[in-house]
Amino acid sequence: MTTRFRALIIHPEQETALQLEAELQKLPSFFRAVVTADLASALSQLIQDTPFDAIFISELIDSEEIFGFTLGAKETPVGEDVVLVSVGKSGEEPPEGLFGIEHRIVEPFTQEALQNVVTLAQKTKLENSRARLMEAIELMTSMVIAEIDSTAHARKNGQSKRAISAHIVEACKTFHDLSPDFMSTYYELVIDAFTSIAPPGKENDEGATPEDHARAALMQQYFRD
User: Fold this and answer.
1) DSSP string spanning 44-108?
2) Which of 86, 123, 151, 177 has a CA positioned 20 to 30 A from the CA of residue 53?
3) Distance (Å, rounded) from C-alpha 12 to C-alpha 4?
4) Rounded CA gap, 60 and 98, in Å?
5) What contacts 61, CB < 8 A, 6 or more positions away?
6) What Cα–Cα distance (Å) separates residue 29 from each residue in 11, 76, 86, 96?
7) Using an 8 Å Cβ cutoff, are 83 and 54 in contact?
8) Alpha helices in the chain (DSSP H)
9) In angstroms, rounded to a whole number, what is the distance separating the alpha carbons of residues 100 and 80?
10) Does a structural domain hold residue 115?
């Protein structure tokens, strides 16, 4: 997965911040870095929906203030997928009470350490995207199942021209453009949902209900792709 790496650097020492920015610029995936000296300015960047993949926070800043910032950052739309990285000095232990931080780098900055941050950011974004996708699929699948059952029941009662709502069909089509990796997740969730639902109505001699037959026909018609 190609990443245009975007970083927000929060450090009260300008020289150190610029050293980190210069090292980040050497990364093949580097795109942009924003440097600020305080947490308030950094949070305003996030509130304005400026996208970042990682936020580097100096351990010179008070731990309680850092924790408050991490809570606020994660509540912003662009902060959900951001990796929070503390910046310390080699040979020094991180400050006590440094909560909300997911990774740590130390001076002098190395390409290996920064590439690890890029990899972590990619992993975080992928995992969060998958979680949001799963939530959307589960919601849509429950709506589709309810719509199919409603339509099947209507057809059983003589409404032969009753069809699946057009907005449901169009909504399902949005999942057809998923990447192969995400498409496998889509199929797993949909198959699991449809194979676990109980058939409604009274069974006939063959163990199937009229709703079952209508449901099967509808599923084949609208989900064969």
Assistant:
1) HHHHTT---SEEEEETTS-HHHHHHHHHHHHTSTTTTTPEEEEEEETT-PPPTT-TT--EEEEES
2) 177
3) 26
4) 11
5) 10, 12, 39
6) 22, 24, 21, 33
7) yes
8) 14-24, 39-47, 63-74, 111-156, 166-173, 180-196, 210-223
9) 12
10) no
Residue 28 belongs to a domain: yes
Same domain, 161 and 68: no
**pLDDT value of residue 204:** 46
Q: Are 54 and 24 in contact (CB under 8 A)?
A: no
Backbone angles phi, psi at 152, to 5 degrees: -65, -40
CB atoms within 10 A of CB 225: 6
Domain count, the chain: 2
Question: What are the pLDDT digits (tens) for 147-169?
Answer: 777 777 777 677 666 666 676 67
Distance (Å, rounded) from C-alpha 225 to C-alpha 169? 12
Q: Of the candidates 105, 102, 127, which has an alpha carbon nearest to the alpha carbon of residue 114?
A: 105
With respect to residue 119, please indicate whether it lies within any of the assigned structural domains: no
Same domain, 9 and 79: yes
The pLDDT confidence band at residue 202, using thresholds 50, 70 and 90, is very low
185 pLDDT band, cuts 50/70/90, is confident
Domain span at residue 217 reads 129-223
